[in-house]
Design goal:
- The chain has 7 helices and 8 strands.
- The protein is α/β, with parallel strands linked by helices.
- The protein is globular.
């Protein structure tokens, strides 16, 4: 239930990471538990998920009207959940735990966010607002982009976790995590770093062959 940034210079690695999350969550939970809304500004391979019941919509870079409508839908969902959770300390987790009712976790995915930001910069302030307010109400964002460069600090501070896949150098990882000690991920597709108390190396799963 946390906003997460996924960094990596290779679009293939970032997409592998996101595909694994969608596939794994859809296999483990029902569409009553989790819904995905996907903004695919990369290779448009996320089209393969458009028919599964967990995915509310997949939109692409050229679909200006759909992008606008989907962002407004997400904003409206947050507003509705504010009212719904008012008697439960205004929190998604508290509502699900104590109301006896269930509302799905909304997971909003942006693949290749730098392309979205370049083409739709008018939504910068809206994205800051949505990522700031949404997580309290069970609307979380997974943002995949190449580097933190060009992202506003007031946007980045709305994210609790970061994963870094293939970066050019150790300095690239330090720009994201700060001090990471003597750790550097091996050169395998889907390999990267995650930092909690210390930095850890991880391996992203691969859900299918390349074709």
């Amino acid at each position: 239930e946390s906003n997460t940034m996924i960094y990596g210079l290779s679009g293939n690695s970032r997409e592998m990471f996101l595909r694994t999350i969608i596939y794994s969550a859809s296999a483990m939970y029902s569409s009553e538990d989790v819904n995905f809304y996907i903004f695919d500004f990369g290779s448009e391979t996320f089209r393969i998920f458009s028919k599964i019941p967990h995915v509310g919509d997949v939109v692409f870079s050229s679909e200006t009207d759909k992008i606008d409508k989907l962002l407004k839908l997400i904003d409206e969902e947050i507003t509705e959940r504010k009212k719904l959770f008012a008697d439960y300390n205004g929190e998604y987790s508290n509502y699900c735990r104590n109301s006896g009712k269930k509302v799905p976790l909304f997971v909003v995915i942006f693949n290749n966010y730098e392309s979205f930001k370049e083409s739709y910069s008018a939504y910068d302030e809206m994205m800051i607002k949505l990522t700031r307010e949404g997580k309290r109400y069970g609307v979380i964002f997974l943002i995949a982009t190449s580097t933190p460069s060009g992202l506003f600090n007031k946007f980045l501070k709305n994210f609790d976790y970061s994963f870094a896949l293939d970066m050019n150098s150790k300095e690239g990882y330090m720009d994201i995590f700060g001090k990471i000690g003597n750790i550097y991920p091996s050169d395998y597709p889907g390999r990267g770093l995650f930092k909690k108390d210390i930095a850890y190396e991880f391996q992203t799963a691969k859900i299918c062959d390349d074709d």
